[in-house]
Model the fold of this input.
Amino acid sequence: MKIKKNPERVDVVIVGAGAGGATAAKVLTEAGLRVVGLERGPWLKPEHASGDELKYLNRNFIWQDPKLKPRTYRQNDSEEAVVTNFSATPQVVGGGTTHWGGMVPRMTASDFKLRSLHGDVPGASLVDWPINYDELEPYYTRVEWEFGTSGLAGANPWEGRRSRGYPTKPSPLSQIGRTFATAMDKLGHNSFPMPQGMVTEPYRGRQPYSENGFWQQYPDPGTGKSSVLISFIPDAICTGLYDLRSDCYVHEVLVGPDGRATGVRYEDEEGNEWVQEANAVIVCAGGIETPRLLLMSKSALFPDGLANTSGQVGKNATFHQYSFSVGLFDRDLRDPLYGWSGHYMSGCSFDFYETDESRGHILGSLIFPSNIGHPVNWSFPGRPSWGLAAKDADRKLFNHTMKIGILLHDLPVESNRVDLDPTVKDAWGLPVARITHTPHSNDFAQEKWQVKKNGEILEAAGASKIVPVNMERITGNTSHELGTARMGDDPAASVVDRWCRAHDVPNLYVFDASFFPTATGINPALTIMANAWRCADRIIQVDARGWTAD
Amino acid sequence: MGQAEWVTVPIATRDVEGPIYLSQDEWDTVEAATARIIPTDHHPGAREARVVRFIDRMLAGTQFVFPAADGIGFLKMTGREEAAWAERIEARRELYRNGMLELDELAKVDFGARFISLSDEDQDKVLEKLSGQPKPEPFTFDAPEDDGRVGAPAGNQPVSEDFLSFFPLLVLNTRQGFYGDPVYGGNENRIGWAVIGFDGPATLKSTMDGSYTTLKYMIPEAHWPYERHPEVLRYRRP
Done:
């Protein structure tokens, strides 16, 4: 390892170039601040992408290779954690917005005040958000328009007040969407077009998605799918003030004797070690890697890890487990569903989102119909695995299957956490993240009820067989990693304040989903981006004024 | 050199027809086994799809792990990623080597001959024994829910095959060779897709330039509220 002359000090160094980091880079550089971005993964471009199922789904072209970047998991403290590929999420420039399905619903107003609504739920660490829907609304709108989205304002009766509609019309309806919408209508329920991170009309130089069907888990070779890779990152680079260095792995956030962050120490692709100094550090490495980095950043001043005086770093982890019911349709009775056409999902409903205690649980999730995979990975529980029986099942059912899924709105529990594994190291010799997690009893109740309900919808749609797929444990199968550096007003009970600034370190921020005080029952990326914009605005307007010139 | 800088090597899985890694004898055994996993009937099976070539190329080394995006050539892997894949492939080679020995061993014990010389029926019996479970029964809509041989779809996540033993690995690889993009050496003339009715892309490049689209299988004219839209209301009514 060589030590060379370190790069110049800048205003802000941002760890990670996903939804949170790229949004911050755009907002800060457009305001004239000099920013260095450090992303541990490669900078793959749209031209590296194509509709290749094996490459993306089976050979993990953009997911971390568990041989190099393992994680460990255990249910509780009495177990020995085992190596798993828990919560695989692309570690690349663009982060989760590269592989995602681009679901961008807004949080509902109630999501911000669950403690006020439900009180002290035994076994859970339920809190209110320190901000409310109206504070975030202007930023939701900005992101929807700057990032590029599609949807239909007003179609979701459960949504809060919005100041503006979507910039492009809803995405085209698939057969799965048709089936879902008509079944929901039959049952007296609302459904509406899924708000999507995609443009469906020519928009700001972008062309609509080709509808090649390779959507969920596939980066888009075109410009239809919205990702920070093709939006906020180019915006930031255009300012001339964003120096984004890919394949650069941050090992430690550094602090000075005054307790302020001074920068980060990182290793580049060739193994060279560098220190990047900055007036402020924003950590956006994801809800697992962010607490890992803070916990690895131990010093005399912060012996338990950085920004961890509260002891809350890594705790209250939630993961939005994805569960579903599969519907198998008889081809002699029903039209084909062609699940592989379109963009994985089509339509959604919030009718089960708000709490109805008569269901026997609190909270709820959005539900949405989707396909069950391209040919290689298409499957359902009970599918014959080999022989003529297997070939026959594939032939009869490949075009006659769909599922309706939920994103578990899981309750935060303090003992559910991310910390450093005491023995397992990654390929760089650093301790890996260890996940300790047991779902709350309300999680199981909610999940069971909704999966059953989704089965009833499939039945109304005419499915001849319903197969529920329930969780046994949390596997991190949504790549949503939340709550591990929670936002709150009380420094004793939270890691960052209402501006996502560390209570302990006045120039250290966390802008990824680690800040979520509670999980919500929707996909987090839109909220990550809106919140990052809100907090970056605060840096520009207030915090940066205190920084001395470099 | 990071993953984004990997160069494309102008090689194809079809540059030669026969084995690159397997011996001819091993090739024949793997081909026979895959032909029982996806048998030929009134539609082509694993044999016609050249699944054995897919498996041979998978085992041949890191040169055939990732095709270039447009399907012309393969990416030259480097660094830690390449080393991790070399290790992974080595583990699979060993599983296949031992697995083929076991197939012949089981065949000799029960039928007194090598696996490849058995009848279809006897090969099935050997595979059944190797799998440790009864041969899968045909799917029916009214079968009980716990009758399955395999679990839930991957749903939302990449699939790991690092922890599989030989038989489930062989089954999965057969499926991959039958249904994966032809660029990997199987799914010859896209016959795997034709069998199940997947109107997939003619080339990987056609998924990049917008020339391949599934729009004709959708209902793009419909707008919300969908359930009231004439295109939906009259959809394929008898």
Notes: Residues 169-221+322-407+441-473 of chain A form one domain. Chain A has a mean pLDDT of 96.
